[in-house]
Design goal:
CATH architecture of the largest domain: 2-Layer Sandwich
Radius of gyration: 29 Å
Helix content: 25-40%
Strand content: 25-35%
Number of helices: 16
Largest sheet: 9 strands, mixed
Oligomer: single chain
Number of strands: 31
Distance between the termini: 45 Å
RNA sequence: CGGAGCGUGGCGCAGCUUGGUAGCGCACCUGCUUUGGGAGCAGGGGGCCGAAGGUUCGAAUCCUUUCGCUCCGACCA
């Protein structure tokens, strides 16, 4: 491709509404433009990156024995009512009516549609397994779209679905996808981790997320230094190893704590560590309010509560609910005399003589023995894991790091086949439900994540497999006949060698070309200019390392191939050995 | 949904407090010079100041409404 005939509108400055680095650089490099909140136009270069990613995904899906199909983005509401997700999916599901007042939604995912397809076709165990996928736009009406391509409302996704006759088959399908995902993210040149995850609104029995490691990630993951345990903090189990505290506790008494709303304020006012305070959080779980107790220096994990109560969702109660229940402003809730179920974190059994909110303005209780003074509905693992905790599998050291969720695979089990009656006849002629799995990759998010992980002050540093071009050839002086002729000859040679090369033949100053080349993140830069040609060389620069070298014009094909191998090698070293992730 | 902020040429912004008929940088067009890390000089084109209504002799500026966008909050108990 010639730069002069490409639409690559690069920007010197980044638009004011871009916050994260991937968003800024995608805009500056002329890869995307925002249409409106959460909706992006993929410009030619951005689309090319997307297609590179999709290409690798497609190859690995096909290799795993999944077949591509394409389903409509618009889906009938009736199907979603069958599974109950019309009610439960919430406002993220964009609904609308057609001219005949029939209800529809824009597909945020396609379990209903594909299950409808398969239940209408498959009758016999002989037809199973069915393994299908598509690469398509999804629409989710996010609460707050942000971070550019990272959390848009419309985005490109690969979603795959498997239907098996028995759980052994379903596990084989799941494993095929787990391995395919590992291969995909390895091939893309990304540093990533597979982690155990919560199944969220998709549901199912268990799931794994694939996380690109980056400090700007929205998720936190916990992993063990000793074994291969790794999990999203939403899910990471906390094992409480202490013993129930048997120490005596003085009688409970009320103390004035004017204006002390937070644990920190109470701790300072009463001169006690945060760990001797019990934090009482009120949460609304499927419309009902419950209280959760954790130590003052801990954080409630709402996902664990939701799963404990087998609920659809759990979120912090609003101030009105808190005030109505505690007869006090937010900040003074406590378990004593509360009229809702109280769930307490295991860890609190390890101590006594706590401070709790008094359910009255500006007051707390001290010398509280939770067993003696409060009614605890149940003790459970309800807090978020911390680096002080140990691995739930082997007791090893736990570390937390940030990640960007780019893939998620789910063992759905019977959730959808039951609701939609996707059944078949087994060998004995008995009707059975299909066991399903579903597997997503956020293709557009992968592009953003790759940039979050790979960039520097000068721009994007694309891993070669998803770079829009392999090589950018800078013709520094197109008006100079000799330089121009050399550049054209090298361009032709590289194309013959099947190198995906962008020739910068624009009538621009050299500085502009250098800057744009760095910004675009093309892994290999070749510079053809009068100075080098006089010495019979062209300069080369590895975008990742910044290392410069010289290739002889005479033996360009040979030198280029050797250099290309060195560049690839550098990337592989940086990525490190493939990580296996947690055992299945 | 709650809180904050912003809408002024394609992009980034100033002007608004204290109303007087719109400006800067980048980009764009023309010419000359320049040509190895986002050139210099000179000239030029482009904006009913997000929209609607109001106050006023006069509104980008003041008031009301509305739309759009961004950020923060959903671990504060």
């Amino acid at each position: 491709m010639r730069f002069s005939s490409c639409y690559i509108p690069t920007l010197k400055e980044s638009p004011a509404d871009a916050e994260v680095i991937s968003h800024k650089l995608l805009l500056r490099a002329g890869m995307v433009r925002r249409l409106t909140s959460g909706l992006y136009i993929y410009l030619p270069l951005g689309l090319k990156v997307m297609e590179k990613i999709a290409g690798i995904v497609r190859e690995e899906m096909n290799a795993a024995g999944f077949q591509e199909l394409l389903m409509p983005m618009v889906q009938p509401g009736d199907l979603w009512k069958e599974t109950g997700r019309w009610e439960h999916y919430g406002k993220e599901l964009l609904r609308f009516k057609d001219r005949n007042e029939r209800e529809y939604c824009l597909g945020p995912t396609h379990e209903e549609v594909i299950t409808d397809l398969v239940r209408g076709e498959v009758r016999s165990y002989r037809q199973l397994p069915v393994r299908l996928y598509q690469i398509q736009s999804k629409f989710r009406d996010e609460i707050r779209p942000r971070f550019g391509l990272m959390r848009g409302r419309e985005f490109m996704m690969k979603d795959a679905y498997s239907f098996d006759a028995d759980s052994a088959g379903a596990e084989r399908s799941y494993k095929l996808m787990y391995d395919a995902y590992t291969r995909i993210f390895s091939r893309l040149g990304l540093r990533f981790r597979a982690v155990e995850a919560d199944t969220g609104s998709i549901g199912g029995n268990f799931s794994h997320e694939f996380m690109v490691l980056a400090d700007t990630g929205e998720d936190t993951i916990a992993f063990c230094h000793n074994c291969d345990y790794a999990a999203n903090v939403e899910r990471a189990e906390v094992t409480w190893q202490g013993e129930a505290c048997a120490a005596a506790c003085p009688p409970c008494e009320k103390v004035a704590t004017p204006g002390a709303h937070s644990v920190e304020e109470v701790a300072n006012m009463l001169h006690v560590p945060a760990a001797s305070i019990v934090k009482t959080m009120l949460l609304t779980v499927d419309g009902k309010t419950v209280a959760v107790l954790v130590r003052g220096d801990r954080e409630v994990n709402a996902v664990k509560l939701k799963n404990l109560l087998k609920a659809q969702d759990a979120e912090l109660a609003g101030a009105a609910v808190v005030e109505g229940l505690t007869h006090a402003p937010v900040g003074f809730a406590g378990p004593i005399g509360l009229s809702v179920p109280v769930y307490a974190d295991f860890e609190l059994q390890g101590g006594t003589d706590y401070i709790v909110g008094a359910n009255a303005a500006d007051a707390h209780f001290r010398h509280v023995d939770l067993r003696r003074d409060a009614t605890i509905t149940a003790w459970a693992d309800l807090r978020a894991i911390t680096p002080e905790d140990v691995c739930p599998r082997c007791g090893g050291r736990i570390e937390l790091t940030r990640g960007i969720e780019v893939g998620h695979i789910f063992m759905l089990g019977l959730k959808y086949s039951e609701a939609m009656h996707a059944a078949f006849l087994d060998e004995t002629g008995k009707e059975k439900l299909m066991i399903m799995g579903c597997y997503g990759i956020g293709v557009s998010r992968v592009a953003a994540a790759a940039i979050e992980q790979n960039h520097d002050q000068n721009g994007i540093v694309f891993p070669p497999p998803l770079a829009p071009f392999t090589c950018i050839l800078l013709n520094l002086d197109p008006r100079n006949a000799e330089v121009n002729a050399r550049a054209e000859a090298i361009y032709a040679l590289l194309r013959e060698m099947d190198v995906d090369v962008l020739l910068d033949d624009r009538d621009e100053r050299p500085g502009v070309k250098f800057k744009d080349a760095d910004l675009l993140g093309v892994p290999m830069q070749l510079v053809v200019g009068g100075k080098g040609l006089a010495r019979g060389i062209v300069e080369c620069k590895d975008r990742r390392s910044g290392e410069k070298g010289e290739l002889s014009v005479e033996n360009l094909a040979r030198d280029f191939s050797a250099w290309a191998a060195a560049v690839r090698n550098g990337w592989e070293k940086q990525q490190g050995p493939e990580r296996s992730g947690p055992a299945l």
